Amino acid sequence: MRTPHDVVIIGSGFGGIGMAIRLRQAGIRDVVILEKAADLGGTWRDNTYPGAACDVPSHLYSFSFEPKTDWTRRFSPQREILDYLRACARKYEVLPLIRFGAEVTEARFDEDAGLWRLATTGGELAARVVVSACGQLNRPVPPSIPGRGTFTGTSFHTARWDHGAELDGRRVAVIGTGASAIQIVPEIAGRASRLTVFQRSAPYVIDKPDREYRPWEKALLGTVPGLHALSRARIYALYESRALGFIKYPRLMDLMARRFRDHLGEQVADPALRETLVPGYPMGCKRILISGDYYAALGRPGVELVTDPIERVTPAGLRTRDGREHRADVIVYATGFAASDFLAPMKVAGRGGRDLNEEWRDGARAHLGITVSGFPNLFLLYGPYTNLGHNSIIYMLESQIRYVLGCVRAMRAHGLEWIDVRPDVQDAFTREMRTRMRSTVWESGCASWYQNAEGTVVNNWPGFTFAYRRATRRPDPRHFVARRARGPRALTVR
């Protein structure tokens, strides 16, 4: 507590590792990363379930400053992405900065000292700047189904996969049909003696154009100058074009809906099953999923799709509202995350002791999804209004990292102790987001994890990613109030 650190980063996923790398490259050496787990990697460390993989092509789902030309597949599996992050941490000497087993329980801004006081499970420390890189998909949410504690078999959430659980020849129940479930189901459909999939609402699933890269392709990517960059740019442009359907012209989603219907028709021969797999909401309102084998897995012998609501968990399995008892040896909860809570469950207190949970009681707000009024020198990566439905979140993270770095550089250059975004600037941004959101497909009449408890979409960016990059290209001094440093409190360069 005696010597405050220049920058403390919370989380060691893509955001945390990327932020640390860029800070070190800018000459800011006193950086600490606090990680609650025993390893880095964020969501790619936590989600080790069978079939876990990315739904953004490999060449785009990576740092722009650290291209990887030897990805094994067009869509990288979990282990390969985690290995990539570890390699980045080693190459850029970030590993020594990480304090593992240090979960932040409380962050309090000391206005007199101009410092953040952090309480963690590994001790206390102080920081001039705090960057939260916790992400949106880090807190698993088990379903609130009565009787969950009575089940006598094995049960777990997909993000806490029990690799000791025996699935071969067992009766397995999967609750949920989201992004994790459609990857898990094909992997275990041929292993379980019986697989029961419980669907609350059908997702839109389109074909996944995945395949292994051939040796000659990887050789060319690694040797021909500019070829990897061209591949990345091509993928970016293709995916970015889809934003038109999400944010401005929802009728364009009909083109993608046609692709969905073709894929469903090719994979599912049973008309009755096919009917239950057609969503009852506009395409894109919820996350669009990609899989080449999910629908085929549902048609396998021994696999059943159940659409009746679950009434309760019983000692022997699950009972649905129609009175049926679905016996199971293993229950897998593919029920998602608390995506709109952002910094929860840590307690965060800003200027004048204001409580962040109270400030956000009617929805999370942060200017550009990065800075929160009343909470000086606190920066969010992957905060509200920065998630995407059509492109790579790494592109958004790099935009945010550049913005935060610009703020830190300005503080250092002008001898500022702290900066705080003005409330009117934050309010104007929030109003703009909510106004623009009304024309998007995400507000076309469905419930999704993009929304908070009040049903307001607070996660997604209602625009093009290149527009977000332009908006975050540099911090505008007019957007902030500041206090000059008193004594040796400015950020140091070592």
UniProtKB/TrEMBL annotation:
InterPro entries: FAD-bind_Monooxygenase_sf (IPR051209), FAD/NAD-bd_sf (IPR036188)
Organism: Actinomadura viridis
Protein name according to UniProt: Cation diffusion facilitator CzcD-associated flavoprotein CzcO
Domain of life: Bacteria
A matching Pfam family: Pyr_redox_3
Family annotation (SUPFAM superfamilies): FAD/NAD(P)-binding domain
